[in-house]
Amino acid sequence: MSVAIGLGLMEFPFAGAADYWRWVDLCEAGGVDSLWQTDRLVSRQPILECMAAMAALAGRTRRLRFGMNVVSLALRDPVLLAKQCATIDVLSQGRLLPGFGIGSPRGPEWTAMHLDPKTRDLISVITKVHARTERGLRQYLLRAMRDGCTAHEVLDALLMAFPALGLSRITWAIDVILEMDLPEFRPEALGVPGSWHDLAAEDSIAPGAVERIECDGRAAFVHRGASGFMVYDSRCPHEVTNIPHLALNGTTLTCPKHEWVFDLTTGACIDKGDRPLNQRRSKIERGRLLAFW
Asked: Do 292 and 194 form a contact (C-beta atoms < 8 A)?
């Protein structure tokens, strides 16, 4: 096993360029393995631009390796950045150590460059799909939707990333998204008409009772009240957890993940959370209870 030493810079702690190059030369001669430059486009302190610093190091040194720690993809054109990395790597004879990230959403660069924070959210979604991290995909997809991304923008981003993701990862992501059953991704929201689904016989649910019914790949909680039937999506509106029958206590439903509590007589969240259950349209037809999705 061998140990190598790399040194990183965020701010520019030198009096000028001459002092900086003197330090680089000492690192080159002294056996330091690599130099790393933090990526900041807006800063109160002096700081070098990351890709320009990589190109300069490629020309000044002959042995040192150098890398970005890390370059923010969301702040740059990805095609141009890829070309810059390839050029620097070729001219330095393979000494570039590229590192890529998406940048902090609180960074001043977003305002200074008039960038839409949805860009960062969509890149995050793509990275989780590439890694096939289901929990991460669910988390960042919900964040993207809260920040204003539309279902069409998410789907377009997945398709645009096809060369990197491949068909199997995109198919996996679509399965996860469909399982989350977000209203924005339902067929009717995407311009595909929904349909009525037969849940149960009207007289099979006693007055005042609650039943969990599975039908055509989905599940619903049904409450029969004095004024008729109320049909709710079985998935919690918080993080789309599919709530099981065991979470039911009379007309109270508690999501097992974060303990949001719902009143099934109204669908309202009565503890921990702030959003109601998603209610399905329903009707009685020829003695059968139908729900629409």
From this structure: yes
